[in-house]
Amino acid sequence: EAGVTQFPSHSVIEKGQTVTLRCDPISGHDNLYWYRRVMGKEIKFLLHFVKESKQDESGMPNNRFLAERTGGTYSTLKVQPAELEDSGVYFCASSQAKGPNTEAFFGQGTRLTVV
Amino acid sequence: AQSVAQPEDQVNVAEGNPLTVKCTYSVSGNPYLFWYVQYPNRGLQFLLKYITGDNLVKGSYGFEAEFNKSQTSFHLKKPSALVSDSALYFCAVRDDSNGGYNKLIFGAGTRLAVHP
User: In what order do the strands lie in the sheet with A19-24?
Assistant: First the structure.
């Protein structure tokens, strides 16, 4: 069974440009989460999809970030325009989460560097 | 507010010795606690979780964690460290707001270095 897949694995862009990150969750997982780790600090929650609906986007830092999950399968996270402080590792996770006794499966992350 | 603290940025252990990676938490209700590991150039991998029941939880790769309610701790342990255990370890607690079972609050991570 394929795990959570993210790409690109690395992206280097200039300040002001646009970048789109993609996450393919484990097949059949309705729940999809985005997290990011900035400058070696804590991994922080960004948002949570249940199928194609945004369940919780309380962690999105500002309106330069836009997440979508059309059709309830893969998800994209777009940063437009990118700023220097957006640099970090963006993780995606998915879970079936039919109840509390569950864990999420994470992808390898996308390392974003804004210069 | 819920939070997780990993007081050590790095832990150094000799191969074959026992290891402990510390984690303390602060939650308003019952804690749901997790340990994840990140090997170089890899994603986060689930190690173990505490939901309820026995305070000693066994997980992958020979790791275990002890839940201590009075000390609000969930330290990760292994009786005999391997060089291949060298990685970045994250403790996390479930954030119960908005009903997401895997909305997690992570600690800053502890880098474990096991020396031959």
Answer: A5-7, A19-24, A75-79, A65-68
B59 touches chain A (CB under 8 A): no
What's chain A's average pLDDT? 93
pLDDT 10s digits, A20-42: 999 999 999 999 999 999 987 89
Nearest-by-Cβ selection for B108 from A31, A41, A108? A41
Which residue in B93, B89, B94, B24 sits closest to B63, CA to CA? Answer: B89
Of A45, A105, A106, the CB nearest to B95: A45
Quick one: B84 exposed, middle or buried, by C-beta within 10 A (0-12, 13-18, 19+)?
exposed
Q: How many helices (H) and strands (E) does chain B have?
A: 0, 12
Interchain CB distance below 8 Å, A56 and B98: yes
Inform me whether the pLDDT recorded for A11 exceeds 80: yes
Using a pLDDT cut of 90, give the percent of chain B over it.
Answer: 78
Least confident interval from A66-80, B29-43, B88-102: B88-102
Chain B environment of A97 (Cβ under 8 Å): 100-102
